[in-house]
């Protein structure tokens, strides 16, 4: 039986993983459309690195994380040698201790070894490079976690999909502006160059841009995690090489240095973009393609330096060689949306990574294919269905810092302009 043709709008994590898994299932007419070549500048995964872990309060995500971890670690997979197991410290304060305890309980129920609470003194004894005081921190250590150079991982998977016959189209020819309908049936898309692209199935994997293509104001809120990078001196790399990832749910994340001596920091105090000029009432992507010189707001820089000071005070005043506004779409319940788009035929979504989608890159596309074929398990359907912005009463937000909009902050416009000793943003190529 002939497989249907598929158009995928967006070449980030969900789009690329889906394209790859479709190619494994005998689909020979798969096209990925994106404004940018892989790894797309608009994808949250186009970054130095991302956390890979299985610690969740929801056992379904723990199960999915463990499945993905097997592929990351598999020496015969396309991701060979990309995963670095550094371990992961989750840190909580007054607003997030309940989430931390829930994650510990799920780890215990799953029989995961080594997950335990650590005092600040125990952390400093285990990793002498951590010299800060960690004031009022509650710390949960998970050894079976690490990181992956995320932009490079997406590129590897996209290249594997291309080798299997998937077509990638970028530039104006891949920049989707509008969907084509006949009644309530989606027939294809129109790109910036005016071309019309038709397919049997249209899948939106458009992340923080989703609300520009379909009604999604209540369901997909674009939020920005600000990235800042410190460059260590060559003689310092060994000192910090073995530090774990530290994720303070109310402040930020710090990663061990990569092979270039870059230490990445990521603010957990996300920003919205409601002051955009494209979609009134929606928070959407502030694209790096349109605003390549914009970067870290002054207020976030001050907060990030205080975060570093609590862990490694000697690095707190180091210059940031570059910064980046990293956008993803978030749902109110922080679940993905992998489902048919409501009240439309032949239109599907695999989007809203909610700032935790990358780690599932090796396997999430398999679940999307199951959804397209009507084979997705009931528990996953319920988890990833379109919810019209509804959030369960017992929802626990791991990053509950009060929301701010980009327009409320200062110093971010032109922050990364060349000159003054600053370097342009880049991501690690292995």
UniProtKB/TrEMBL annotation:
SUPFAM superfamilies: FAD/NAD(P)-binding domain. Residues 6-370 form the FAD dependent oxidoreductase domain. Signal peptide: none annotated. Keywords: FAD, Flavoprotein, Oxidoreductase. Its cofactor is FAD. GO terms for molecular function: flavin adenine dinucleotide binding; saccharopine oxidase activity; sarcosine oxidase activity. Belongs to the MSOX/MTOX family. This is FAD dependent oxidoreductase. It comes from Aaosphaeria arxii CBS 175.79.
